[in-house]
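Notes from the 1:1 (GR / supervisor)

We went over the backlog. Supervisor wanted to see one worked example end to end before approving the batch request, so GR pasted a single chain during the call. The sequence is below; no edits were made to it. Supervisor asked that the structure be written out right there so they could see what the output format looks like.
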Amino acid sequence: MNKFVIHEHQALVAGWHHDLRLERNGVFKSWALPKGVPEEPGVRRLAAPVENHDLSYGKFEGKIPRGQYGAGKVTIWDRGTYETKSWTDTKIEVTFHGKKLHGEYVLRWMEKMNSWLLWKH
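Structure output shown during the call:
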């Protein structure tokens, strides 16, 4: 099973949000969740793709200094492992096994919105 981490990020520029990071091919594939993690089935949330992060970032908590990308306070909201049900260019289905997050989730590329959506299955 691969690892996941969700950071709570109080960014100076982008404001409060969560960052979802899924271990894949030696890096964390990452998405910003401007309205947080959907914990109830059927609630859909925007998931904006951001740059991949090194796996060491899975343990990071602290302050990113002013003037650097992502400046602001970062804490770990949840972490654990996940199982991949499917992973394509337009749809990712996983089952989370975290301290807070449990169950099946879907990330789906929405062409008309030019972005991803995340929801609990």
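Supervisor's comment: Residues 2-120 form one domain.
Batch request approved.
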